Each structure stands twice: as C-alpha cells, then as structure tokens.
## 1
Amino acid sequence: RAEHNVVITGHSMGAGVASLLGAIWLNDGIVPEGKMKVVGFGTPAVTCPVLAEAASPFVVAVLNGVDMVPRLSIRSVTSLIHVIGDKWKSLPIPTSAPSADGPVLGPPGLKIWFEST
C-alpha cells in the first residue's frame, strides 16, 4: 500500500539480495519512490557503478573497512591473479587429496575431495 513505508534489510548475501530487491521493486513500481529504504550490513559487490549511484537515494550500505565481502568481485579476483602472475605457478599446491601419513592443514569441517578426470 502506498501509505506505508517499506524497510528492507540484510547482512552479507542478504544485504546484496535486499539491495537488488529494492531496486527491482522501485523500478517495477511495486513500492513508490520515497517510500522505501534498504539498509545492508556487509553488502557484497552486486551492482555496477551506474546502478550503485542510482540506488544511493534509497540504499544504505554499512561496511567494515577490513571486510573483503564488499570488495570481492570477478574483477577484483582477476586483478589479484594478474598481480600474482607467474609466482602462482611456483606455489606448492597439492594435485590430489592428501595422504593420512602426517599432519595436513586445510579447511575445517566436512571435507569432500574431488579428483579431476
């Protein structure tokens, strides 16, 4: 209803979804202009610069300066790969699952190893 204000909020991925949902609802006229606010905490990089600027009247992104989520995008990962360059090839990266013959460092929790075919 046009007489009500709408507030959408989320954290991390939910903040990205909230931001995009707000843009869609505003664009489609589901919520009238000036009747919606979106507040995201740790919002990931989900928009191009043009959409980011267009959303600034109704979206607020609360970001921690050291949080990588808001900066992580295909472009930032590609840039990192180019910065690392040939040094990446010299890292001792295992090509298969580790054996049970000694201590192995890795991710916590259930591990599912996939072998390439």
Note: Residues 13-27 form the longest helix (15 residues).
## 2
Amino acid sequence: RIDELKVHCPNKSLGCEWVGELGSLYRHLSQNSVEGECQFVTVACPYDCSRSFKRRRLMNHKAMDCLSRPFTCQYCNYKAAYTKVTNEHWAICKKYPMECPNKCGESVIERQHL
C-alpha cells in the first residue's frame, strides 16, 4: 500500500528528523497547534493575537509573550486576556495594593480600604 511507504518530513531541511509512513504525514504536519507533531510547521496562536510561529516557538509565546493569553489577576482572581487584566482591570481592582495616600509608608492597602 502506498500509505505504508516510508517518507521524510518535508521540513527535513529545517531540522525535522521525522521519518514515518506516508499515511501518517498529514497528522505529523497538522497545523492544529495541539494535534500536530512537526516542530517546524507554522501554526497560528490559539489566542486572539493573530500571530503565527513555528510550533517549537509557540509554547513560549503562549506562556510568556502573547498579550492575548489567558491571565488571572493575582489580587482578586479575575480572569481575562493579559492586556485586559494588566491595562484595564488593575486600574479598578478593589484588591490591588495601593500606597497609603497619607504617606504613612504602608504600601499594601487594598484599594477597597482607602
């Protein structure tokens, strides 16, 4: 059967060392960021940032760099995109630590207690 022929990944020149059956090549190259195996395939970020990366770089982007990644406010556990939490929510978060307006030196007063 033709599906059983041994083939190299088309991304061999980029560094992929995969060798497998032709019938498995589609799954190996899948552009679905979760299902695919080839680390040299360009895949879209699953969040709303509209950026694409080689799969081997996507994990770091999703965890550290994507401004649209899910993020939780460490003060009140509000969940939203990273930029929404850090740019909008922290400005109104009732548990966000504030410096005392009386300059007493206390810097861990929650906004709700001012």
Note: The mean pLDDT is 91.
## 3
Amino acid sequence: MRDAPFSGLYFMFYTQLKRVFPETQSNSVWSPLAVFGCGLAAGCFASVITQPFDVIKTQIQLNPNQFDSVYQVIHYLYARVGLVAFMSGLLPRIIRRTLVAAMSWTVSKTRRFSRASAISFRCVHCDLDLCIAMLSSSSNP
C-alpha cells in the first residue's frame, strides 16, 4: 500500500511516454534505451508528484506526539522552511527509486538479453544489488 501511488503514477506516465515511440522501433537495437528513458522520465514525474505526501508521512512518523492532524504538519513544514520543505529528499529518492524502476522495466520489457552478458554488483553505500544487462547480438528474442 505504501508504494501504490508511486507505482500507479509511474505506470501511467510510462505508458503515455511509450506511445511517443513508433511501433516499428519496438524491435530495434534502440528499444532498450527507449524503454529505459521512458522509465527514467516516468519515475521522475511520479517522484515529484508523490514526494510532498511522503515528506508529510515521514514527519508524522518521526514526531507522532507533536502533530494531531495532517494540516498541522503542512503548516509546520511551510512555516519552518517554506514550500521547499515538501521536496526535501527528492534527489536521493529520484536516484534510487527511479533507476531501480527503470532498470526493472527495461529488463522485463526487453527479451534480447543473454545470461552471459549480465554484470551484477552491490552498492557499498546503500547495500543495493544492481544488475546491468547488455544486448547480445547472438541471442534469440
């Protein structure tokens, strides 16, 4: 339930952005790049829209005894920092969530990957597993 708004917006933006590319290019060599680009853009749009709500939710979770309503949290954040408070932490969120979502969609939507061409490594900062798959010209779709 926590990720439902982001996922719903992500999927909506992704499908709309995907319509920009002609159907004839869906099987081209550039298809994974187009899917990844649509995924990145969709993730950025969805993150910007859902970030203020996540900031409010986080404030309520961090200070459960300080606030009685969502309105109090909004007023507190606005009075303390201004509108920029609602976008606090947006860049790390975009980097982490958007890249992971875009890579997942690229791998799931592109069937031209061979097992031998995948490189996997672990990020030492956030303990996140990353897998980069490269196109293989000898693989069958």
Note: Strands lie at 113-122, 129-135.
